[in-house]
Amino acid sequence: MNLTDEQRQQLIEAALTVRKWAYAPYSKYPVGAALLTASGKIYDGVNVENAAYPSGICAERVAVFKAVSEGEREFVAITVATHNGGSPCGACRQVLAEFGLDTLVLIVDGNGNIVQETTVRGLLPGAFTAEALEKSG
Ligand code: THU
């Protein structure tokens, strides 16, 4: 599904804006994510760190889990904003892959410039999905 220019701008704005709520006292690397669902809603998320480091979670997964816990499962696009245009981590790629390989991914820097535009498939070629489980046994 293609994004309109307006949707694209809204997603970028949302990811940039929500980044202020990132809880990143350890890495000092705030991340904002904004996820557009097929129903037209935008769910945002930030990274939430913890003194026990592995207990923290990335912005993208917060956005996905917020959406799924509100009954949403069809995702059109996700925007990820960091100051330097960092790319989604492997765990987030896997979580996104669960809900569709065609979800558009916009990676933006702190000024909202698009550093990379791709899809979940592009970020995670050969993804392990439910299909693999169906083939077992
Ligand atoms: N982080 C994200 O929120 N998303 C990513 O895809 C990459 C990393 C967070 C996790 C941690 O809070 C900080 O960035 C540094 O790794």
UniProtKB/TrEMBL annotation:
Enzyme Commission (EC) number: 3.5.4.5
GO biological process terms held by the UniProt record: nucleobase-containing small molecule metabolic process; pyrimidine-containing compound metabolic process
Domain CMP/dCMP-type deaminase: 6-131
Cellular component annotations (GO), alphabetically ordered: cytosol
Cofactor(s) the record lists: Zn(2+)
Keywords: Hydrolase, Metal-binding, Zinc
Catalytic activity line of the entry: 2'-deoxycytidine + H2O + H(+) = 2'-deoxyuridine + NH4(+); cytidine + H2O + H(+) = uridine + NH4(+)
Single GO term (MF): zinc ion binding
Superkingdom of the source species: Bacteria
Amino-acid positions noted as binding substrate in the UniProt annotation, renumbered to this chain: 47-53
Catalytic residues, chain numbering: 60
Pfam family, one: dCMP_cyt_deam_1
Residues that coordinate or bind Zn(2+): 58, 89, 92
Xref: PANTHER family: CYTIDINE DEAMINASE
Biological role stated in the UniProt entry: This enzyme scavenges exogenous and endogenous cytidine and 2'-deoxycytidine for UMP synthesis.
Family per record: Belongs to the cytidine and deoxycytidylate deaminase family.
Protein name as it appears in the record: Cytidine deaminase
Organism in which the protein naturally occurs: Anaerolinea thermolimosa
